[in-house]
Amino acid sequence: MLEIQFDPLPTAGDFFARCVTSIPPAGRHSSLLRIILKTGKKRLLFILNKLPASKAAASALVLALGALLGACGAPETTTQIGVYSGRHYNTDKELYTRFTEATGIQVKLLEAKDDALIERLNTEGENSPADVLILADVARLDRAAGMNLFQTVDSDALNQAVPSDLRDSSGRWFGLTRRLRAPMFNADLVSAEQVSSYEALADPSLKGKLCLRNRRSVYNQSLVAFMLDEQGQGATEDWIKGMVNNLAEPVFSSDTPMIRAVAQGQCAVALANSYYLGRMQAGDKGEADQNLAGKVTVRWPDPVHVNITGGGVTRASRNPEAAQRLLEFLSSDQAQGGYAAANHEYPLMGIGEDPVLQAWGPFQQAKVSAERLGELNAQAIELMAANGWQ
Fold first, then answer.
1. Residue 240: which domain range?
2. What is the 3-state secondary structure (H, E, C) of the chain?
3. pTM for the full model?
4. Which of 40, 52, 79, 152, CA to CA, is 20 to 30 A from 174?
5. Are residues 382 and 265 in the same domain?
């Protein structure tokens, strides 16, 4: 039900009106002219504070009523959700547009660094406009959950689309893509057998041939957490020490320059996330990087460490049902190919249709859950610092 109320008119024929959400009793406006029109199932109330003083004014009133019928006959509200995302790909925006077309739910997107988004959401508290938080790496998802930034979601669609090892057991966050961290090597300098496992990278035969990213990298922290779960603390400490002894040069701050170093022979092998090499081999980073990437081969250990990009409904969400619908959409078959392929990541199941990923072949995924990796993050950081990983 809508009301259109004319404010006091400064001159005859000059009309201004506003839409409000209820029709007051007639007694409250006994001195005003009330015009009630019915359009479909809606009643429109027009209240005038005085009668038109001339034919011109009456004509203007008719025009104003026509315009207002169109303006106030529209839906009273449009559902909108705020999305804070650590991803920054144009194809993501295209998927959000498709979601809006399918559901009518508008998406207001804010993209920034993952850690900055966590801090922002925490600072904003209950006043945050964010309904969905999307982050790269389970360590960040676990941290956000530990800060009580997510609310629990009970969704059959999400539970069916997202394997149990790629989502939080309490329903606070859900994996949306998979990313693999594995050895990438220069076949002119080492053989595939020399780098066939994570443990092999600590072998003395690789002394002076290994490149690593720094320990501040959440990707390395999750890899060490994986090794803790697989090998235990003692073996993981020895592994870290062995890799540190094998370093060809100081640690890198990013994966891409590290892969370039492998291609250029500065080191023979590096540990990197698969999509960094995928971007280069696909030509996303330019022709020069594409040519360099042709000299680098990925080697899947058995099993291979798998991490995720994931998201959840924020505790502050004012539209949790709409936010849940977005997560269900992003994890569905109709969105998975585009969401993962945007960054040459793997969909939640299978390899997908990305030709770069298909060329790398199948792999055996580790059985450790993403949730377990998050639980071991703090211990992993301590071990890295204590055993020389800079």
1. 180-305+375-386
2. CEEEEECCCCCCCCCCEEEECCCCCHHHHCCCEEEEEEECCEEEEEEECCCCCCHHHHHHHHHHHHHHHHHHCCCCCCCEEEEEECCCCHHHHHHHHHHHHHHCCEEEEEECCHHHHHHHHHHHHHHCCEEEEEEECHHHHHHHHHCCCECCCCCHHHHHHCCHHHECCCCCCEEEEEEEEEEEECCCCCCCHHHCCCHHHHCHHHCCCEECECCCCHHHHHHHHHHHHHHCHHHHHHHHHHHHHCECCCCECCHHHHHHHHHCCCCCEEEEEHHHHHHHHHCCCCHHHHHHHCCCEECCCCCEEEEEEEEEEECCCCCHHHHHHHHHHHCCHHHHHHHHHCCCCECCCCCCCCHHHHHHCCCCECCCCHHHHHHCHHHHHHHHHHCCCC
3. 0.80
4. 79
5. yes
